[in-house]
Amino acid sequence: MCNIESFKIDLKALPQGASILEFKLDDSYFKAIDAPDIQSGELSSSLSISRTDDFFELNFHTEGIVHIPCDICLDDMEQSIETDDRLLVRFGEDYSEEDDLVIVAENEGILDVAWFIYEFIALNIPIKHVHAPGKCNPAMIEMLQEHSAARSGEEEEETVDPRWAALLKLKK
Q1: For the chain, which terminus, N or C, has the lower number of CB atoms within 10 Å?
Q2: Is residue 103 a contact partner of residue 95, using CB atoms and an 8 Å limit?
Q3: How far apart are CA 45 and CA 149, in angstroms?
């Protein structure tokens, strides 16, 4: 089981300068954060934190593989992920997020990076995800071809409304 508490960083306890944290992301991680789009994967994420007074620069490097459904055959496929992302954090009155700046309530001083890492992974997945040519489930491809609109259009001859046919004669 994934220890989701390990993704909560106590910013007040961090020393000045650089700190490095490592995270292993597997199926239990995606289940623990209740990920909507990705259910499984094997990734590693390295987080480098640079602290200057009450200002923090977080640099994430995440790489590995996630398993997502193919848009064509719906079978699971592997999608490789490699992403570098940056997040700026500072203390303030209340928690808020604006673009790549996160303001953490100074009285708490805790930043949970679990969801940020998930968002970085999800944003790195292409909009269209399909297997390499020839790798889709052949049974599903055959079923798609049977029910394709293009195939049914080939079998039937195109009938033209007689009113349009008269207009076509005028055109010639």
Answers
A1: C
A2: yes
A3: 45
